[in-house]
């Protein structure tokens, strides 16, 4: 394949002239009365709205409606004319195309008949007769469209726009609809069928090549696995598969693909792999760093890379700091062509570190043409940003696909440095906690630079240029004050203005707040403001602790707020979440939505609150601390603080319960939750409800964590966690969910609240279960049963018994599992919980299946599905179909099993249940193996590995690897199968689970083969 110009459609072979001697008969005969009538040869005379397709069955449409194309041989004639690109075909050439060397005796008459019928079916000017032959004048052909899309993709790729090129190739490939020229007879059709299929594969290889260039290697593995199974001797596909595996961190499997290929080529063709494939193997053996880079370096002046421009806007009234600007600017300029430059600014809160760093970064932009990255590391707060989370955001901004971003911190840092290699990018790391937090975020390559701001001096950051930022000089402070307030007002009261900036301790943030208040109040004089600051308690002293100085500064702004604004400022600061939505803020303040918005926007105007996004607000971390201090001091009555947080908790619990209910109609959990006094949101659409839950996940979990501090809110916090169980299954929030559940369990235990402790332990049992930690899950579930029964809390008892049954299934304790699930079914029935009963029935089905009672298994799973369907319970109905699919698989009903599992998969994808999406793909792979569709099985298992990355635990990964190995062995990739089994064995031995013996057997058979 020509990488520069892309795939081309192979040239068409014109049909040979057929002999004139008849060799057979034809039943479809007739004459063409119009055979000698010549039509205009205008290539635009294609008929109004006519369109043709040959990349599948030969078809025609007029304005979207199908047009009959006649018998197979008549379609063969139509195809032969369409594929000539408007050129005329003689009658003899058409006879040769339709019948080859043995035409029937009435072949010429048949051709004329077919042509006449086609002319009647199509528009008169489409099929024309000329020079003793026929031609079709049209460009509305799927092959032509595919050629144009492929040519456009070539140009886009050459220009460096790989994403657009891939999209065009995908459009072209979508035009194929099954077998080319399906059911069309004749030698010409056979030749064209092979030619167009080869072209399709070439286009597909090009698209996959681009996938790897843009870093989508993890997703490509599944497709390439299936393609190599379907086309085992096509070495280019093998080469791409090796590269995709290597870039996915699966070096052993990549080398195994080469070994399998070499063995196959020797056995089938008696040849060695191509030099390209052999060179790739050597580069993988040598761990070639260039090979691991997902994005190919563009040629000079070629495609633009992703160039992030994340710097916040610089303030228009930036003042002073000239020496620092020059010093830092000169330091950043040295990064161009030299070692990486790192400058770290330190100083108390509010001293202007961020303002200075952003201003310097904007000044230095010409030195960093490949982009600027920015992040607020939240180092001054209780929960600083995790480096791995920041690296994920940076990699996405630099153009890395989500699927290509690894899980661990070290891998992300390595990929980050590789991605920045050769680029000139400035990274601004704002508000860092310490050197340990930022080390993984440093570019590490020449041409790049990092600016760091922090409240601490980073003496342990090797190689950094340290800058201690002090308060402003009196001249600079006065200049900043004047630019905000206005020259006219300050000029007449210069001494008073100096008193103001001195009282602010020359701290830029304090000066900005004071000046903004004065600018907003035209009736005040500077002297009035100075008099307000005369009190020493309001004055900033540069020798004081940074937080206290900042607090005194904020006091100035807070004191100018209207009573309603001040109340909003105090109460909203009590919430722990990273930000807060407008509707949640309305709950905290117990005000209508429009009044709340007015207050919040007023606080934004005074710089005491930030607008994080439309409808969302956040505090600077120091301002939040100050707001809480104000609440402790000023809120009357003091109980209003607890009431505000209680309303927020009620809002979240009420809304989460409605999300749960709309996703699980008929489920009784919502009837067993703690009552709420403040109402939440109502949803009419399941997707809207899901969007809310995942958008609010961080703030919701922060509220749950905060509820642990008070016995009056603890139970509602636990129930909110229970109602939000989807967050534990989604993967994105699993770790934080588990951490919060642990905090609540300990808080409940400390408070002696057995009911709350039991429910918190239930959520932990489910977390451990989903993560494959079955021993811990069993311990928690056993405790749940004990605690729930002691306080007569029936629903957790039902849930825990159901969970213990499922856990026993995974641990092959089938008798225990049968007992737990039979009890769960009885308990759910007693509680009137039909959804829970259905869940337990489906789990019991799997126990019966594991013990050889297949008929019972199918019957019970079907009962569960029927109950779910009666309630309209789509999500749990998918769980039921999953169990039914397993039972049908074991009973040999493979077609039905595949249908049920695919139905379940569609729902899990729609509901964003990544764990169950991955497990459904895994089970479909098992069905395909049972049906000996090994290529399809390998593709599904690969997809399952990709989906389950980071969730589901190692045990489930071992399951998928075992099945993937079976599928690969089935398509002849035994070396790669052995690698998968070995990894699965390592996992099982680490976990000490019985599945290890099965994998040892597979490896032993492989070694003996």
Quickly describe the structure:
The protein is mainly alpha-helical. The chain is about 60% helix and about 5% strand.
For the structure shown, list the relevant keywords:
single chain, 1009 residues, mainly alpha, five-stranded parallel sheet, disordered N terminus
- Which strands sit side by side, in order, in the main sheet? 8-9-10-7-11
**Dominant shape:** globular
Radius of gyration: 35 Å
**Helix-strand category:** mainly alpha
Q: Strand tally, please?
A: 14
Helical element count?
44
Euclidean distance between termini CA atoms: 37 Å
The stretches of 5 or more residues where confidence is low (pLDDT under 50) are: 1-47, 296-304, 536-550
Helix content: 55-70%
Largest sheet: 5 strands, parallel
Strand content: 5-15%
The averaged pLDDT comes out at 82
